[in-house]
Amino acid sequence: MSEAHGTGLLVVGKITGCFGIKGWVKIHPYTEMPESFEKFGAWQLKRRGVYEAVEFDAVNRQGKGLVAHIRGVDDRTLAEQYRGLEIAVSADALPPLPEGDYYWRDLQGLAVWCQDAEHSGEEKVLLGNVDYLIETGANDVLVVKACEGSIDERERLIPYLPGDTVVRVDLEEALIEVDWFVDEE
After folding, report:
1. Residue 119: predicted pLDDT
2. Is 6 helix (H, G, I), strand (E, B) or coil?
3. Could you give the CA distance from residue 3 to residue 68 in angstroms, rounded to a whole number?
4. Which ranges of 31-183 does DSSP label H, i.e. alpha helix?
5. Residue 81: is it exposed, middle or buried by C-beta count within 10 angstroms (0-12/13-18/19+)?
6. 73-91 pLDDT tens trace
7. Fold of the domain built from segment(s) 104-178
C-alpha cells in the first residue's frame, strides 16, 4: 500500500481488467490479506488525477486476486472504463495492528541508526531515512537513503527482520535501530 500524497488516502489496489459480461472487474489488491479489502468500504478511484467515490456491492476471491461488482455498472462495456484505475481508501479505514506490527507507511521517513563504534567512535551511527520498502517474497527490505547527518551518501537495502536485523522500531522517536555494519551491502 502506498499513500496518495497529500490526500489522506492509501492506494490499496488496482483494477486490472473485466471479469465476465455483467460489469464485474478484476482487482489486484496491494494488501497482505486480500480478504480484508472488502472491509475497507468508502473506496475512491483515481481517474485523471481526481478521486471519485465508488461502491463495490460484491467482492469475491478469484485466484490470487479479487473480482468485484461496481454498483450501477452492469455490463462489460461500462466496466471497461475502470480498467487501470487505482483504488484508494482513507487511512482511517485500516484496522489497528497488533503491538510490534506496522504499516509500511508508518516506517517511511524514519531515521535508521546502527551500532558502529569502530567507524565513528560513537555508540550509534545514522545510516539515513527509510525512503520506501520492497516486498521480495522472503522478507521485506528497507530502502534507506542518505540524509543530512548520515555517515555517508550510500543507499542501503536492509532486510526488515524484526528481532534480527531490526532491533527496535520507535514511532514516537521516529527511528529504527538495526544490527547492521556500515560497510555491509
Report:
1. 52
2. coil
3. 22
4. 37-40, 76-80, 104-107, 117-120
5. middle
6. 999 999 999 999 999 988 8
7. SH3 type barrels. (2.30.30)
Domain boundaries, the chain: 2-93, 104-178
The pLDDT confidence band at residue 150, using thresholds 50, 70 and 90, is: very high
Q: How many CA atoms lie within 13 A of 48 on its CB side?
A: 1
Global pTM exceeds 0.85: no
- Using an 8 Å Cβ cutoff, are 56 and 70 in contact? yes
Q: Are β-strands 140-145 and 124-135 bridged in parallel, bridged antiparallel, or unpaired?
A: antiparallel
The span from the CA of 150 to the CA of 70, in Å, is 48
Q: Looking at the domain 2-93, which fold is it?
A: Elongation Factor Tu (Ef-tu); domain 3 (2.40.30)
Is residue 148 scored above 70 in pLDDT? Answer: yes
Q: Is the CB of residue 176 less than 8 Å from the CB of residue 113?
A: yes
User: Amino acid identity, residue 36?
Assistant: S
First to last CA, the chain: 26
Exposed, middle or buried, 50 (CB in 10 Å: 0-12/13-18/19+)? exposed
Handedness of CA 22, 28, 30, 32 (dihedral sign): positive
Give the confidence band of 10 by pLDDT, cuts at 50, 70, 90. confident
**Does this chain's domain 2-93 share its CATH topology with 104-178?**
no
